[in-house]
């Protein structure tokens, strides 16, 4: 039976250029595209590791997925591949907070400068663009500047795509280099649409988590690398180390299961008339907790899936400067308003936090525990 969109119209197969499409989000999106659509995927990335399982079965997909190893910074093939596609999805980014202080130039170039040719080629060739932004563009909530008893009113912390101001720290707090670069890219896309007719959709993810997120240092990433919080805590759990709570883990976050989030992206792909010209928050407002509470829940779940005694798992408070370096700053909480995406696409998240953590930590333990045990058993030199 032919697939239809939300308006009951048949979904025509298209060719999609996925820039940065072999990473965490891209690999899950590629799986979904191959399994549940007839679209073709042209994947651009510096490594194919997270989609090799799809490329090895490419005959199953009858030539519907292809991979091009390239860095988009200086590669003339980029425009050719965008021209050959109906839709470009830009996922390319440096998006690990540990890099914002130590690599601010790379962060700005990756998230703003490198996006310029993508936007240019889509505009000039009249190709639709789905661009991945971030919830960090909102910065700090208005409520964070008020006394504690005023912060509970949703109007002071609920983040709305078309209303909420973007509040960042001072320039010396280089942690905001990522958010500023992403915001400038959003503004450029909006301007290209207003002045030159670019068809766009902007996605603002709120802590999407699940299998294949980031890397485990020393196993499939640099030993001195610092991934995002879920992979950091997973690495600590796998190694039997204390989970490090930056500034006590007070910051509040919402977490969304990657499979739920990919459902939202598929709706954007298949319903351009409903998605073009919109910015969409994609997150799970009900899955909110502090980073400290996340650590405690992860220890509980990991003990269950690994058989490691819960009593052996601990946390350790560290300062943000010691962990991230000088210039770190943070937002207090990030709760998405889902009014627009619910109205336009009928999407809502489904997976509760405990369930998505159990799925993710089961994957992490199964995938990495043997390698880490082998590493830890080596005699020290």
Overview of this structure, please?
The chain is α/β, with parallel strands linked by helices. It has one domain (93-371): Rossmann fold. It has helices at 24-36, 52-55, 77-83, 97-102, 104-113, 115-124, 177-196, 229-239, 258-270, 272-275, 291-306, 320-324, 339-345, 353-377, and strands at residues 15-19, 40-45, 65-69, 87-90, 128-132, 158-159, 200-205, 208-209, 243-246, 252-254, 256-257, 278-282, 288-290, 315-318, 335-336. The strands form 5 sheets. It has a 7-stranded parallel sheet, sandwiched between helices. A two-stranded parallel sheet has the order 6-15. Helix 11 (291-306) crosses helix 14 (353-377). The longest helix is centred in the last third of the chain and has 25 residues, at 353-377. The N and C termini lie far apart (62 Å). The model has no long low-confidence stretch (mean pLDDT 92).
In terms of topology, how is this protein built?
Layout (H helix, E strand, L loop, with lengths): L14 E5 L4 H13 L3 E6 L6 H4 L9 E5 L7 H7 L3 E4 L6 H6 L1 H10 L1 H10 L3 E5 L25 E2 L17 H20 L3 E6 L2 E2 L19 H11 L3 E4 L5 E3 L1 E2 H13 L1 H4 L2 E5 L5 E3 H16 L8 E4 L1 H5 L10 E2 L2 H7 L7 H25 L4
Parallel strand pairs: 1-2, 1-4, 2-3, 4-5, 5-7, 6-15, 7-12, 8-11, 9-14
Antiparallel strand pairs: 10-13
Helix pairs in contact: 1-9, 3-6, 5-7, 6-7, 8-11, 11-14
């Amino acid at each position: 039976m032919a697939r239809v969109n939300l308006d009951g119209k048949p979904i025509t197969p298209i060719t999609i250029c996925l820039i940065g499409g072999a990473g965490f989000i891209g690999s899950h999106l590629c799986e979904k595209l191959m399994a549940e659509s007839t679209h073709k995927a042209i994947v651009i990335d510096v490594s194919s590791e997270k989609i090799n399982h799809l490329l090895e079965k490419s005959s199953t997909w009858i030539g519907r997925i292809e991979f091009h190893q390239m860095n988009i910074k200086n590669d003339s093939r980029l425009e050719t591949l965008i021209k050959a596609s109906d839709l470009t999805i830009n996922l390319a980014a440096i998006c690990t907070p540990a890099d914002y202080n130590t690599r601010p130039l790379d962060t700005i170039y990756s998230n703003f400068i490198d996006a310029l040719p993508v936007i240019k080629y889509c505009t000039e060739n009249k190709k639709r663009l789905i661009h991945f932004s971030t919830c960090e563009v909102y910065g700090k909530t208005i409520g964070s500047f008020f006394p504690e008893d005023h912060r509970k009113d949703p109007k002071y912390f609920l983040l709305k795509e078309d209303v909420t101001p973007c509040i960042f720290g001072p320039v010396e707090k280089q942690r905001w280099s990522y958010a500023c670069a992403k915001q400038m890219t959003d503004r450029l896309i909006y301007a290209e649409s207003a002045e030159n007719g670019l068809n766009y959709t902007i996605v603002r993810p709120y802590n999407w988590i699940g299998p294949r997120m980031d890397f485990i240092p020393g196993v499939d990433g640099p030993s001195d690398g610092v991934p995002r919080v879920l992979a950091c805590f997973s690495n600590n759990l796998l190694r039997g180390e204390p989970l490090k709570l930056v500034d006590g883990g007070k910051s509040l976050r919402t977490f969304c299961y990657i499979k739920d989030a990919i459902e939202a992206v598929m709706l954007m792909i298949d319903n351009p008339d409903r998605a073009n010209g919109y910015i969409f928050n994609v997150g799970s407002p009900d899955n909110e907790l502090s980073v400290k509470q996340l650590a405690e829940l992860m220890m509980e779940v990991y003990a269950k899936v690994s058989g490691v005694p819960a009593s052996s798992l601990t946390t350790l408070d560290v300062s943000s400067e010691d962990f991230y370096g000088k210039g770190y700053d943070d937002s207090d909480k990030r709760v998405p308003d889902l009014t627009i995406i619910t109205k336009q696409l009928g999407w809502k998240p489904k997976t509760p936090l405990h369930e998505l953590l159990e799925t993710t930590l089961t994957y992490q333990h199964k995938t990495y525990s043997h390698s880490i045990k082998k590493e830890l058993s080596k005699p020290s030199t």
